[in-house]
Here is the input.
Amino acid sequence: MVLAAGYGTRLRPLTEELPKPLVPLGDRSVLEHIVDRIRACGIERIVINTHHLPERYDEAKLGVRKVVESTIRGTAGGVAGAAAEIGPGAVLVYNGDILADVDWRRFGDAHRDASPFATLAVTARRGPGEGTVGMNADNAVVRLRNGRFGEEVWSADFVGVQLLSEGARAVLPTDGCLVGDVYLHALARGARLIVSPCVSGFVDIGTPQAYHASNMGWLDGRPEEVFCANDAQVAPGVSLVKSVVGAGAVVHGRGTVDHCVIWPGARTSAPLCNTIVLRSGKCVAVN
Here is the structure.
């Protein structure tokens, strides 16, 4: 399940036009990147929950099941409310505003071998107290948010990808947060949560600056420093430098478009630098 119901307030004004998971990253939306990653590990039944601008997901045509929440139910409530669409068994839950490079085999093996309440995907090992979650010598969670449940010997950063057991799903509230309302209570009563250090890299698109940086990072992974969709129209007098120009976008004028992200369907004029151009034509400057 991909959690996609939030308002994306930190990403405004981008999320005034699109839900956060549908903002374009390189040649497709963040959600398309996520779905591709999940399907790469063999999962075909993918469910998303929506609330903010739900009709935009119909336009996306991603081949996923959609649950529309009339009111936002939180991360735990979102999974609980989608139970019928998800089906029985353990469930992979993936935050809709991050992209993580996960070793799926390692992650799945850790969960299967330990049979824990839940397994959290984390980054490489760090010293005690440094990361967002702390573990004991057996990779069991002993620190989460302000909760302490044992002696911490190493830490890591939790990236918002997790596997919930059937037992965890059975106690999900109809409204609430997976960490605050489920995991902390489970740890307090002695349930075992484990981690798998299976994440080699991740990006969080939570702010316009982080979103812009993620697009520049996507370009860094390509042989060309510019992505310009085949049907985009760029005036002859415009020079593109490390920029993303989406499908159907039109760039008029003369001069350089440098380190810009121009959304599909947007119309704008050069020169531009360090700018996100939304479909409406609104320009969002980033430092």
